[in-house]
Amino acid sequence: NAGVTQTPKFQVLKTGQSMTLQCAQDMNHEYMSWYRQDPGMGLRLIHYSVGAGITDQGEVPNGYNVSRSTTEDFPLRLLSAAPSQTSVYFCASSQNSVPNSNQPQHFGDGTRLSIL
Amino acid sequence: GESVGLHLPTLSVQEGDNSIINCAYSNSASDYFIWYKQESGKGPQFIIDIRSNMDKRQGQRVTVLLNKTVKHLSLQIAATQPGDSAVYFCADLNQAGTALIFGKGTTLSVSS
Q1: Any CB–CB contact under 8 A between A72 and chain B?
Q2: Contact status of B1 with chain A (Cβ, < 8 Å)
Q3: Alpha-carbon distance B44 to A16, whole Å?
């Protein structure tokens, strides 16, 4: 039962480097999203997608790009990493944007990213 | 604006006690709320949801209460167990209905 798989689990980058955080789900969910979680801040939405080929910005999109070429995958790209992007990143998926007890939103276990 | 917050960042209880975790929201138009549980090193996990046409909803050992008059909801956990130790978040939908807005979380610690 894979659910939502995020890779890598940990990553250390230098300022200015670029990288892609991978997210894949095997539940044929239409809706996928990326959050960052910082101490005392809860989860904040970065980008989301309501289906393949469609993406939109969330609350804190600056410095991040996404694409949704397939239903299964929703990678998050940091074009030029900055120390302010040090955080834990969570990917989530659900059948639609309004999860419920029958169709809950599933989260991956996160990617812990440090920018030096 | 939209914001969902919790009253207390931490809550410590004894095993077997009932726990009450509170959340206040600012958007009076919010019509759907979810409680999540996040264990250490894991992503958030759906616990229970409630729509604004309800005042109360019960699950297994959990009850969510919604007071729309004061824009407040609470999560009650009966007979709290050590396995309930986690961070609990409330969340509601943004005005467009396209994304969840999370509160800052309450850390529940259960001692034996």
Answers
A1: no
A2: no
A3: 30
